[in-house]
């Protein structure tokens, strides 16, 4: 299934309509190119991503830049054609706009404010729920009309900012789903048992605070943690060595060199302190830019290792729904998916203890050895001696596939015609020669190449598309920007306009 969840709003409705009404006649692809990334224009969320709009059967598409973090132009309206010439005045206005959207205080100022806030008597501490801000004594009058939280803002509560802050709920930009304590403590126990002493928490604030709380409680070996998150509100609670304002979709540090120095220092494995990255990205995000950012994190880790370890991969745990498995493994072939079901406090569906199709679809993808990861037997997980890994109770070993094949927690069945295991609700369709739901529309075969229609490959591997990319790169240096591209929005028929112009010229003569 083509992923439209991250397409900028200006194209999304047209893309969805074309995909289903016209037989996949329109699509958007994100372009990853390190050379172009360095020249990408910026919006308030850092360097924009480069996309390409492609029509079925056409080799050449139109490229444009859009925000990396927001899926709706109501949240971030940035848009620029790749070949568009931008005036100096517009560049200056854009820079001023980007600055106006940054946090009201620097990280250092937030840290100073926190120290002053903690020094206040308990009955003087206020947290503005509307502004999501810890208030100093002289600021309370300014927020008098706002709803403030004033009951027992103790140091213990300040140690759990994810419970104090209101979770962001915009599903098209920055929706936050926080680990339930069950999943958070399981991850923490797992990492400690595997000997890791540094945890890079990318978009996992709940895990970060659990690590800090356990360190303060004592009784176990101390783990160091660094939180990278796009939610700048956490700067109120953590020092510059504990938190970096970061966009995982473009590997952008908002505090630039200072934050990058903290990041690099954390990755150094001194005194045998093994580092691991744990990330829980927004489920609506594209896998490709996320994987590119995580590869850059791994690359930074490699440069800091000894020569004998420089060829290894940085240990990672990527938390994502199981139906993204194919895309994740395309980017990280060394990864494997574990059966552990991750649940969240504030998600209406992704809860532990449900059965059937209502189970949480969120899993752990990791380059750690599955044999070393012990899942809790009290929750029904068991060791498969053949696969040498822990699986869910409903995941039965298939002798024909020689694997435990279930992805969603239910027991799958083997289809002899398809020569693979399928979901229990699927039946083999003789007309389609594949397994599908009983009420599926017959005649729709598997999707093939978007450019040439072949079922043997996808667009990214199409020989025609590869030849076109090579041709584009070869001509880029000598081509006048925009020489072969319409100046009208993508998808509008240019031939029709040409005929209208010809008719007007004919009338004038």
From TrEMBL:
Q: Which Pfam families does UniProt cross-reference here? A: N6-adenineMlase, Zn_ribbon_GRF
Task: List the residue ranges of the region (Disordered).
Answer: 463-509
Q: Where is the composition biased (Basic residues)?
A: 494-509
List UniProt keywords, sorted A-Z: Cytoplasm, Metal-binding, Methyltransferase, S-adenosyl-L-methionine, Transferase, Zinc, Zinc-finger
Highest taxon listed in the record's lineage: Eukaryota
Q: Which residues form the GRF-type domain?
A: 43-85
The molecular function terms of the Gene Ontology recorded here are: rRNA (adenine-N6-)-methyltransferase activity; zinc ion binding
Compartment list: Cytoplasm
Any Gene Ontology CC annotation: cytoplasm
PANTHER family named in the record: RRNA N6-ADENOSINE-METHYLTRANSFERASE ZCCHC4, ZINC FINGER CCHC DOMAIN-CONTAINING
Q: What's the protein here called?
A: GRF-type domain-containing protein
